[in-house]
Amino acid sequence: MNGKTVHDADPYWQTYYNDAFQFGMGAEDILQALAAVPAVHTWCDLGSGSESLLWSIPLTAHHLIAVDIDPERLAILSRFAARRQPRPAYETALTLCNRTRADFAQRCRALAGTIVADCLASPALPLAPASTDLITQFGLLGLTTDPPHFLDAWRRAHAPLAPGGWCAGANWIPEPSRQHGRVALTDRLYRHAFADAGIRPHLLRRVASSDPQFPSLWLYLGRKQ
Ligand SMILES: C[S@@+](CC[C@H](N)C(=O)[O-])C[C@H]1O[C@@H](n2cnc3c(N)ncnc32)[C@H](O)[C@@H]1O
Question: Which InterPro entries does its entry note (predicted)?
Fold first, then answer.
Protein backbone atom coordinates (compact mmCIF):
# COMPACT_ATOMS: atom_id res chain seq x y z
CA MET A 1 0.00 0.00 0.00
CA ASN A 2 1.82 3.12 -1.19
CA GLY A 3 0.42 6.15 0.63
CA LYS A 4 -0.11 9.39 -1.28
CA THR A 5 3.42 10.75 -1.11
CA VAL A 6 3.56 14.32 -2.36
CA HIS A 7 6.01 13.64 -5.26
CA ASP A 8 7.56 10.70 -7.10
CA ALA A 9 11.15 9.72 -6.30
CA ASP A 10 13.07 12.09 -8.54
CA PRO A 11 10.93 15.25 -8.19
CA TYR A 12 10.94 14.69 -4.40
CA TRP A 13 14.73 14.47 -4.42
CA GLN A 14 14.92 17.69 -6.46
CA THR A 15 12.24 19.61 -4.49
CA TYR A 16 13.05 19.04 -0.83
CA TYR A 17 16.38 19.46 0.98
CA ASN A 18 18.25 20.02 -2.28
CA ASP A 19 19.34 23.61 -2.99
CA ALA A 20 19.12 26.14 -0.17
CA PHE A 21 17.89 24.82 3.18
CA GLN A 22 14.22 25.86 3.47
CA PHE A 23 13.84 27.37 6.93
CA GLY A 24 10.37 27.61 8.46
CA MET A 25 9.10 24.26 7.15
CA GLY A 26 9.96 22.24 10.24
CA ALA A 27 13.26 20.64 9.17
CA GLU A 28 15.34 22.74 11.58
CA ASP A 29 12.95 21.82 14.43
CA ILE A 30 13.34 18.14 13.59
CA LEU A 31 17.15 18.39 13.46
CA GLN A 32 17.17 20.14 16.83
CA ALA A 33 14.89 17.50 18.40
CA LEU A 34 16.97 14.63 17.03
CA ALA A 35 20.08 16.06 18.69
CA ALA A 36 18.59 14.90 22.03
CA VAL A 37 18.74 11.23 21.02
CA PRO A 38 21.80 9.49 22.52
CA ALA A 39 24.27 7.56 20.35
CA VAL A 40 22.86 4.23 19.18
CA HIS A 41 24.20 1.15 17.48
CA THR A 42 21.31 0.18 15.17
CA TRP A 43 18.95 2.71 13.59
CA CYS A 44 16.09 1.88 11.26
CA ASP A 45 14.45 4.67 9.23
CA LEU A 46 11.00 3.66 7.94
CA GLY A 47 9.56 5.32 4.84
CA SER A 48 13.06 6.69 4.48
CA GLY A 49 12.73 7.61 0.84
CA SER A 50 15.96 9.24 -0.29
CA GLU A 51 16.45 11.42 2.80
CA SER A 52 17.76 9.36 5.75
CA LEU A 53 21.14 11.05 5.51
CA LEU A 54 19.62 14.47 6.23
CA TRP A 55 18.13 13.20 9.49
CA SER A 56 21.36 11.31 10.23
CA ILE A 57 23.25 14.58 10.69
CA PRO A 58 22.32 15.30 14.36
CA LEU A 59 22.23 11.58 15.21
CA THR A 60 25.07 9.24 16.07
CA ALA A 61 24.29 5.77 14.75
CA HIS A 62 26.68 3.01 13.86
CA HIS A 63 24.43 1.05 11.56
CA LEU A 64 21.53 2.46 9.49
CA ILE A 65 18.90 0.41 7.68
CA ALA A 66 16.58 2.39 5.39
CA VAL A 67 13.16 0.89 4.60
CA ASP A 68 10.78 2.12 1.93
CA ILE A 69 8.17 0.73 -0.42
CA ASP A 70 9.78 2.48 -3.39
CA PRO A 71 13.04 0.93 -4.66
CA GLU A 72 13.75 4.03 -6.76
CA ARG A 73 13.97 6.26 -3.68
CA LEU A 74 16.22 3.74 -1.95
CA ALA A 75 18.46 3.62 -5.04
CA ILE A 76 18.81 7.43 -4.92
CA LEU A 77 19.73 7.19 -1.23
CA SER A 78 22.34 4.47 -1.84
CA ARG A 79 23.95 6.38 -4.74
CA PHE A 80 24.06 9.54 -2.63
CA ALA A 81 25.62 7.68 0.32
CA ALA A 82 28.29 6.24 -1.99
CA ARG A 83 29.31 9.77 -3.07
CA ARG A 84 29.82 10.93 0.54
CA GLN A 85 29.19 14.57 -0.53
CA PRO A 86 26.47 16.66 1.14
CA ARG A 87 24.02 18.65 -1.02
CA PRO A 88 23.65 22.41 -0.30
CA ALA A 89 20.72 22.00 2.11
CA TYR A 90 22.66 19.27 3.91
CA GLU A 91 25.63 21.64 4.26
CA THR A 92 23.35 24.03 6.17
CA ALA A 93 22.12 21.14 8.31
CA LEU A 94 25.73 20.24 9.09
CA THR A 95 26.37 23.82 10.23
CA LEU A 96 23.16 23.91 12.31
CA CYS A 97 24.19 20.68 14.04
CA ASN A 98 27.88 21.55 14.46
CA ARG A 99 28.94 18.66 12.26
CA THR A 100 31.71 18.51 9.67
CA ARG A 101 31.95 17.03 6.17
CA ALA A 102 33.96 14.20 7.73
CA ASP A 103 31.02 13.55 10.08
CA PHE A 104 28.77 13.42 7.03
CA ALA A 105 31.04 10.89 5.30
CA GLN A 106 30.91 8.77 8.46
CA ARG A 107 27.09 8.88 8.35
CA CYS A 108 27.15 7.81 4.69
CA ARG A 109 29.31 4.82 5.64
CA ALA A 110 26.79 3.89 8.36
CA LEU A 111 24.17 3.08 5.71
CA ALA A 112 24.41 -0.68 6.04
CA GLY A 113 21.47 -1.68 3.89
CA THR A 114 18.13 -0.86 2.36
CA ILE A 115 14.95 -2.94 2.49
CA VAL A 116 11.97 -2.64 0.17
CA ALA A 117 8.91 -3.25 2.35
CA ASP A 118 5.39 -2.01 2.87
CA CYS A 119 5.37 -0.41 6.31
CA LEU A 120 1.65 0.45 6.25
CA ALA A 121 0.09 -2.94 5.49
CA SER A 122 -0.38 -5.91 7.78
CA PRO A 123 2.62 -8.28 7.57
CA ALA A 124 5.30 -7.70 10.19
CA LEU A 125 8.34 -5.71 9.10
CA PRO A 126 11.31 -7.89 8.10
CA LEU A 127 13.21 -6.89 11.25
CA ALA A 128 13.61 -9.05 14.35
CA PRO A 129 11.65 -7.98 17.46
CA ALA A 130 13.73 -5.95 19.95
CA SER A 131 16.64 -5.75 17.46
CA THR A 132 16.81 -1.98 16.93
CA ASP A 133 17.97 0.89 19.17
CA LEU A 134 16.32 3.71 17.23
CA ILE A 135 13.31 3.70 14.91
CA THR A 136 12.39 6.83 12.99
CA GLN A 137 9.81 7.81 10.41
CA PHE A 138 9.50 11.18 8.77
CA GLY A 139 6.34 11.59 6.70
CA LEU A 140 5.34 7.91 6.65
CA LEU A 141 2.68 7.30 9.32
CA GLY A 142 0.76 10.43 8.34
CA LEU A 143 -0.02 8.55 5.10
CA THR A 144 -2.29 6.15 7.01
CA THR A 145 -5.97 6.55 6.30
CA ASP A 146 -7.62 6.70 9.73
CA PRO A 147 -6.87 6.26 13.48
CA PRO A 148 -7.11 2.42 13.52
CA HIS A 149 -4.74 2.25 10.53
CA PHE A 150 -2.34 4.72 12.20
CA LEU A 151 -2.36 2.77 15.49
CA ASP A 152 -1.83 -0.55 13.72
CA ALA A 153 1.03 0.79 11.56
CA TRP A 154 2.61 2.51 14.59
CA ARG A 155 2.50 -0.74 16.61
CA ARG A 156 4.14 -2.75 13.81
CA ALA A 157 6.67 0.00 13.09
CA HIS A 158 7.88 -0.08 16.69
CA ALA A 159 7.83 -3.85 17.29
CA PRO A 160 11.56 -4.09 16.37
CA LEU A 161 12.45 -1.51 19.07
CA ALA A 162 14.65 -2.89 21.88
CA PRO A 163 13.76 -2.07 25.53
CA GLY A 164 15.30 1.32 26.31
CA GLY A 165 15.44 2.11 22.57
CA TRP A 166 14.34 5.42 21.12
CA CYS A 167 11.79 6.43 18.52
CA ALA A 168 11.54 9.76 16.73
CA GLY A 169 9.59 11.17 13.86
CA ALA A 170 7.53 13.85 12.25
CA ASN A 171 4.31 13.93 10.30
CA TRP A 172 3.15 16.83 8.20
CA ILE A 173 -0.49 17.94 8.32
CA PRO A 174 -1.90 18.84 4.91
CA GLU A 175 -4.09 21.87 4.34
CA PRO A 176 -7.79 20.87 4.38
CA SER A 177 -8.23 20.25 0.62
CA ARG A 178 -5.39 17.67 0.73
CA GLN A 179 -6.56 16.00 3.96
CA HIS A 180 -8.98 13.62 2.23
CA GLY A 181 -8.01 9.97 2.71
CA ARG A 182 -5.42 10.77 5.39
CA VAL A 183 -5.63 10.25 9.12
CA ALA A 184 -6.40 13.34 11.24
CA LEU A 185 -3.39 13.50 13.59
CA THR A 186 -4.03 14.69 17.14
CA ASP A 187 -2.15 14.84 20.43
CA ARG A 188 -4.58 12.26 21.79
CA LEU A 189 -3.97 9.82 18.90
CA TYR A 190 -0.17 10.01 19.33
CA ARG A 191 -0.49 9.48 23.10
CA HIS A 192 -2.72 6.46 22.49
CA ALA A 193 -0.12 5.08 20.02
CA PHE A 194 2.76 5.66 22.49
CA ALA A 195 0.89 3.92 25.33
CA ASP A 196 -0.17 1.05 23.12
CA ALA A 197 3.43 0.33 22.07
CA GLY A 198 4.87 0.72 25.60
CA ILE A 199 6.78 3.87 24.63
CA ARG A 200 7.12 6.85 26.97
CA PRO A 201 6.84 10.18 25.11
CA HIS A 202 9.74 12.60 25.68
CA LEU A 203 8.54 15.22 23.23
CA LEU A 204 5.26 15.70 21.38
CA ARG A 205 4.73 19.04 19.78
CA ARG A 206 2.86 20.59 16.87
CA VAL A 207 5.05 22.99 14.90
CA ALA A 208 3.80 25.61 12.42
CA SER A 209 5.23 25.50 8.91
CA SER A 210 5.41 28.12 6.14
CA ASP A 211 4.63 25.47 3.50
CA PRO A 212 1.09 26.33 2.28
CA GLN A 213 0.47 22.68 1.30
CA PHE A 214 1.49 21.42 4.77
CA PRO A 215 0.97 24.29 7.25
CA SER A 216 2.01 22.33 10.35
CA LEU A 217 3.63 19.12 11.50
CA TRP A 218 3.76 16.89 14.54
CA LEU A 219 7.18 16.14 15.97
CA TYR A 220 7.92 13.49 18.62
CA LEU A 221 10.57 11.57 20.53
CA GLY A 222 9.94 8.62 22.81
CA ARG A 223 11.66 5.82 24.67
CA LYS A 224 10.56 2.19 24.87
CA GLN A 225 9.99 1.00 28.44
C1 LIG B 1 6.66 12.18 2.52
S2 LIG B 1 7.84 10.99 1.97
C3 LIG B 1 9.07 11.12 3.22
C4 LIG B 1 10.41 10.63 2.80
C5 LIG B 1 11.53 10.84 3.81
N6 LIG B 1 11.30 10.10 5.03
C7 LIG B 1 11.78 12.30 4.12
O8 LIG B 1 11.95 12.63 5.31
O9 LIG B 1 11.85 13.12 3.21
C10 LIG B 1 7.02 9.46 2.39
C11 LIG B 1 7.85 8.22 2.11
O12 LIG B 1 7.10 7.08 2.51
C13 LIG B 1 7.25 6.08 1.52
N14 LIG B 1 6.06 5.21 1.60
C15 LIG B 1 4.79 5.47 1.22
N16 LIG B 1 4.00 4.44 1.49
C17 LIG B 1 4.78 3.50 2.07
C18 LIG B 1 4.54 2.20 2.59
N19 LIG B 1 3.32 1.67 2.54
N20 LIG B 1 5.58 1.51 3.11
C21 LIG B 1 6.83 2.03 3.14
N22 LIG B 1 7.12 3.26 2.67
C23 LIG B 1 6.10 3.98 2.14
C24 LIG B 1 7.35 6.82 0.21
O25 LIG B 1 7.92 6.04 -0.81
C26 LIG B 1 8.22 8.01 0.64
O27 LIG B 1 9.58 7.72 0.55
Answer: SAM-dependent_MTases_sf
